[in-house]
Amino acid sequence: MVFFFFITSFASSVASPDAEILLSFKGSLQNPIFLSSWNDSVPHCTWVGVSCQLGRVTSLALASTSLRGHIPASVFSLSTLVFLDLSSNALVGEIPPQIGQLKRLRQLSLSQNQLSGEIPGEIGGLTHLRSLKLGLNSLTGEIPAGIGRLTRLDTLDLSGNGLSGALPVELGELTQLQFLDLGNNRFSGHLPGALFTKLQSLTSLDISNNSFSGSIPPEIGNLTSLVDLYIGTNSFSGQLPPEIGALSRLENFIAPSCSIAGPLPDEIAGMSSLSKLDLSYNPLGCRIPNSIGQLKNLTMMNLVYAELNGSIPAELGSCRNLKMLTLSFNSLSGSLPEELSGLPLLTFSAEKNEFTGPLPPWFGKWTQMESLLLSGNKFEGRIPTEIGNCSSLQHISLSDNLLSGEIPREICNAVSLQEIDLNGNFLSGNMDEVFLHCSNLTQLVLDDNRLGGGIPGYLTDLPLMVIDLDSNNFSGSIPVSLWSSETLMEFSAGNNQLEGILPREIWKAGSLQRLVLNNNQLRGTIPKEIGNLTALSVLNLNSNFLEGSIPFELGNCGSLTTLDLGNNRLNGSIPDQLADLGQLQCLVLSHNNLSGEIPGSLAELTNLTTLDLSGNRLAGSIPSEFGQCSKLQGLYIGNNLLSGTIPASLGGLGSLVKLNLTGNQLHGSVPTSFSNLKELSHMDLSFNDLDGQLPSTLPEMLNLVGLFVQHNRISGCLDQFLSNSVSWRIETLNLSHNMINGELPASIGNLSVNT
């Protein structure tokens, strides 16, 4: 009897119409490996993701099961379905209108798929629905008005689609709605005040990243249950309505980049539960209101790029829970009020303002501070020693101020310091032992100051990744031990008075990506071991006293994007191996004593934008292969011993802006192909042996403002050459010391011409 009952139940299961629908659903999908248990060997109510009551399917929970394909209309024949979750899959196509058949459905989630098309109006027939989630798809069109019939809905998520149009006033009928997310769509128009009149149960509202316009309606004050409000990145106008102060339960008000103007209403103090306030990137154009000090629960306030003026109100010091205060890129002025010293701040950012006066010693009370960013102001005087009391400080930026005096050794009492940026001040003294105890320091930026003395060897013992000492008065040689650093990625010490040589030990700095030592007094040769720095992307040794040949091992530095060896005493030929630097964008070898021919293989550097070989003793002809360097914007090979004709292939350099071939021994005529150089602004062919006539098409180069061809043997008639120059933007034209005749036409305007 038991055996007979089992057979009967099993046969009944297989014959169930729900089972047939589910198998049909499975069959419509592409390789549904997560549904392998769906087969007629076991009852359908035991299948993965399926729940039943009395043998009928009531729940289908298949989120994140790698489903691919269209949703078949047949699945909506599961008439007893209460819960349907197909979210986080790869379902495509439109939502079938048959979805309206699921009259008992309470929860529907199709979010995070690739569904397209419009939301079917039939969805308004699901009157038992409490949760509707269609976010993160590619749905388009407007919200159907029928959605207002879903009066039991408490959650509606349509975010992250391409929905457009105005919001239907019918949304206001969803009086039980608690969560409404319409963010990241293309909605437009004004916010209907009626929308906020009845939604008094709403706790979270997100309409961010749309194109809403008009003012924020005062009816927003009716949303007295609201906890989260996100309205950023829209095109509103006007001010925040005073009624917003009625949102006493609001904890998060995130409204960046939505064109809100000031002044901020004093009623903002009524938002007594507010924890996070973000009004950044708005044209507030006002002062920070004193009433903001009444927001006792405030933990984060972001007013970056808000066109604020005036001073920081002392009342802000009453926000005793404030941990993040960002006021950068405004026009705030005055000194920092001491009342801020009692705040438990983790981050204080006030960069690019107009603050003045000395840095206050009470900074030392900020023992929890992690980031102190005050660059781009007018602070003056010394760096207070008390800053060493900020035991949690990790990042300090005081760059571009008027600070002077020595850097206090106490700064490293802040043992957590990882990044120090003091560039662009008037700091003096030396670095002896100043940073010796900054045992966690990874970034030290001191460029553009008045620091002097030697570069201390103890820097090697710190975990430094970036050292920037540019534009100071450092002298002596670079400690050899520095090249043994396993962490150093950037070392810049250009525009100093450093001496000595680049040692062979440089190969040990295997992590080095940027080495800038231009404008110093380095001597000796470039060690061939530099070729072991395969991570190097920038090498700038310009304006030193380096001699010898360019090591061919540089061709091993395959990550190089900038190689600048100009203004030295290098000799020999340009090594062919430089053509192996496929990432190179800027190559400067100018003003050395290089000889031999220009390697045609340099044309293989297809990413090159600047090539400067001027001021050497290079001979031979200009490689015609250079015409292949399609990204080249600047070609400077003047003042060499080049001969032959100018290759016509250079006319194919469509991105070229500046061309300088002056001071060579080039002959022949100017190629007519040069008229194709539509981006060219300056061309200098002077002091050569060019002949023939200038191409009549040169005036068609509308971006050309400077043309220099003096001291050649160019002939022709001036008025004929300039007869079509009405639209020519040329500003300086030097044709002197040639064989050109004729007079200037009247159309030439205010052109400066030397004939």
From TrEMBL:
InterPro entries for this protein: Leu-rich_rpt, Leu-rich_rpt_typical-subtyp, LRR_dom_sf, LRR_N_plant-typ, LRR_R13L4/SHOC2-like, Plant_RL_S/T_kinase
Alphabetized PANTHER family for the sequence: LEUCINE RICH REPEAT FAMILY PROTEIN, EXPRESSED (PTHR48053)
EC number: 2.7.11.1
Compartment(s) of residence: Membrane
Name of the protein: non-specific serine/threonine protein kinase
Domain Leucine-rich repeat-containing N-terminal plant-type: 16-52
Keyword entries, A-Z: ATP-binding, Glycoprotein, Kinase, Leucine-rich repeat, Membrane, Nucleotide-binding, Receptor, Repeat, Serine/threonine-protein kinase, Signal, Transferase, Transmembrane, Transmembrane helix
GO terms assigned for molecular function: ATP binding; protein serine/threonine kinase activity
Residues of the signal peptide: 1-15
Protein's UniProt keywords contain ATP-binding: yes
EC top class, as a word: transferase
Entry-linked Pfam families: LRR_1 (PF00560), LRR_14 (PF23598), LRRNT_2 (PF08263)
Source organism, top-level taxon: Eukaryota
Reaction(s) catalysed by this chain's protein: L-threonyl-[protein] + ATP = O-phospho-L-threonyl-[protein] + ADP + H(+); L-seryl-[protein] + ATP = O-phospho-L-seryl-[protein] + ADP + H(+)
Disease resistance R13L4/SHOC-2-like LRR domain location: 121-232, 555-703
Source organism per UniProt: Linum tenue
GO cellular component: membrane
Membrane topology: Single-pass type I membrane protein
